[in-house]
Design brief:
CATH topology of the largest domain in chain B: Peroxisomal Thiolase, Chain A, domain 1
Distance between the termini of chain A: 60 Å
Number of strands of chain A: 0
Mean pLDDT of chain A: 90
Oligomer: heterodimer
Structural class of chain B: alpha/beta
Helix content of chain B: 25-40%
Distance between the termini of chain B: 26 Å
Number of helices of chain A: 7
Number of domains of chain B: 2
Structural class of chain A: mainly alpha
Largest interface: A-B, 34 and 28 residues
Helix content of chain A: over 70%
Largest sheet of chain B: 12 strands, mixed
Low-confidence stretches of chain A: none
Low-confidence stretches of chain B: none
Shape of chain B: globular
Radius of gyration of chain A: 20 Å
Shape of chain A: extended
Number of strands of chain B: 16
CATH class of the largest domain in chain B: Alpha Beta
CATH superfamily of the largest domain in chain B: Stage V sporulation protein AD
Largest sheet of chain A: none
Number of helices of chain B: 10
Strand content of chain A: under 5%
């Protein structure tokens, strides 16, 4: 049987993923997380009398702390399966990717285990995050002059 | 290549499963069940798998009332890099050892090799075993286990467990009647989350060649059982067999991956996979049903995607492999 004919059989028997449903779930849950962060931001500003920018750093730290604890308790992966990309895309996903890798490689030791594997998933985000910051920074400089 | 055997029997089997398999419908057929976690008292997933394999083999030796010296050869394989679980298991046994790798089709190759040694009178008793561990496999092939990326419906769930089988030249109730060695097949599938589609062509080819070589019809067997194609792979195989060879699998065919779990209520997507999937179902459930007389002639076709993450990242498609083993109740 040739590859094209086989692909037809495979396509016929492969279930379609419900992208729309997944997108709606991610939008609602991700949005709720955004709203929660905003609430937290305003609370921090109010309670600690901080400017918005500094209070934002505290919000990020809080989210990292919560998601890392949830990962360590073995809850985060179950949540991710249910709410799809909603928790993976924000900073919570970044923290989760590092905590889960650290947990996974703790048996291989501090250096060769945790040290060399903690950025296994997050490394890509950091690398291309920095690269795109440069690209957009230069574009901004060219377009708006600074 | 099909080989017929006159003198190869299954003396006894021993199967161990983890908690997910224990919650599945075949739980009562396994000799030992771990219900709590997947560590089994060890410190890492990899060591936990060695633990399973060691336990299955030593308990089978005890069950058969033998000593290590009575066994001529130990053949074992698993999913870990360098088949580490089997190697570390084998260092605990004073038995000549052959380590093999054929991914999820390992048990087929192990039985095929063991049977050939016995039929050729090079060995009298051969112990064959295989194992897989859900977490060890996830860690090695995919993301960290706690990461939990959403997976498509076609993805399968690696079975945690191990099975050990004692092959002998002494007559017993079930014999290995014949085996067919399959060819490596690759029809261009690159999706690592659709292993059923990857493996179906190898299963189809070996079933067809087995029937052709032995001049049998598909109805000769009470049951034809593939390894771990899952719900969607199973339908792909049925369509493939019909359109390529005009062989109808609708009556006496099933897939171990769809039998080991309760697919509606367990989080296993398309079903079970891994070397111990076909091994547990065949040598836990089917073997015991054959002893009871439910099935008399069974063709097992463990399927394996010989999947290397490195090659997949280099944009290669995934080759696959399957062997066919015909088991018969001795009259």
């Amino acid at each position: 049987m040739d590859k094209n004919k086989y692909k037809e059989i495979v396509d016929k028997n492969t279930p379609k993923e419900n992208y729309i449903k997944n997108a709606i779930i991610s939008f609602v849950v991700g949005g709720a997380l955004g709203a929660f962060s905003e609430l937290l931001l305003r609370c921090y500003s109010l309670w600690f009398e901080l400017p918005r920018k500094e209070s934002g750093v505290l919000v990020v730290l809080t989210l990292i702390l919560i998601s890392s604890i949830l990962t360590a308790c073995g809850v985060f992966d179950t949540l991710v399966t249910k709410v799809k990309a909603a928790l993976i895309i924000p900073i919570t996903g970044f923290a989760h990717s590092m905590t889960s890798a650290a947990l996974e490689y703790k048996n291989e030791g501090l250096v060769l285990g945790i040290g060399s594997n903690i950025f296994k998933l997050a490394g890509t985000v950091i690398l291309y995050g920095v690269v795109s910051v440069y690209i957009f920074g230069i574009l901004r400089l060219i377009v708006t002059g600074g | 290549m099909t080989t017929k055997y006159n003198n190869v029997y299954i003396d006894s089997t021993y199967t161990i499963c983890g908690n997910y398999e224990n919650d599945g419908p075949l739980s009562e057929y396994f000799d030992k069940k771990y219900e709590k976690d997947l560590y089994f008292g060890e410190k890492s997933w990899e060591k936990a798998e060695v633990h399973l394999l060691k336990e299955a083999n030593s308990n089978l030796i005890k069950k058969a009332k033998l000593k290590e010296e009575d066994i001529d050869l130990l053949i074992s394989g698993d999913l870990q890099n360098q088949i580490a679980a089997s190697d570390y298991m084998a260092r605990e046994f004073n038995i000549p050892f052959l380590g093999i790798f054929e991914a999820c089709a390992t048990i087929g190759e192990a039985i095929l090799l063991g049977s050939t040694f016995i039929e050729g009178k090079f060995a009298k008793k051969v112990l064959v075993s295989t194992s897989s561990h859900n977490m060890a496999a996830e860690k090695q092939f995919r993301n960290p286990t706690e990461y939990g990326t959403p997976k498509p419906k076609t993805a399968t769930f690696t079975v945690t467990g191990s099975a050990s089988i004692l092959l002998t030249n002494k007559k017993s109730k079930i014999r290995v009647e014949s085996t067919t060695i399959g060819k490596v097949k690759d029809l261009g599938i690159t999706d690592v989350n659709n292993m059923g589609a990857v493996m179906a062509p190898a299963a189809a080819d070996v079933i067809y060649n087995h029937l052709k070589d032995t001049k049998r019809e598909i109805n000769y067997y009470d049951l034809v059982l593939t390894g771990d194609l899952g719900i969607y792979g199973k339908n792909i195989l049925k369509d493939y067999m019909m359109s390529s060879y005009n062989i109808d699998l609708s009556k006496n065919y099933n897939d171990c991956g769809t039998m080991i779990y309760d697919l509606d209520n367990q989080p296993v997507l398309a079903g079970g996979s891994g070397p111990s999937c076909s091994a547990l179902v065949t040598f836990g459930y089917i073997y015991k049903e054959m002893l009871k007389g439910t099935y008399k002639k069974v063709l097992i076709v463990p399927t394996g995607a010989i999947f290397s993450p490195t090659f997949t990242f280099q944009k290669e498609s995934i080759p696959c492999m399957a062997n066919a083993i015909s088991l018969e109740v001795v009259v």
